[in-house]
Sequence to fold (60 residues):
Amino acid sequence: MNHYKSQYIGLFPEDLQRNIIAALQAKNLDDESIEDAMNSRLCDLENTIDLTSLLDDHEQ
Fold:
């Protein structure tokens, strides 16, 4: 997972981006916060959502 941390979320496949959006929505973030998060690097979200399970599910 460490090699993904510095990548921008917008560079990930669409299915993974949808999963990230769903995880952010589950945290009750507003649309503006979700948009900001989707324009950031993956490492910026590690304190907000469980990145390990999202990436593990995607890599399988």
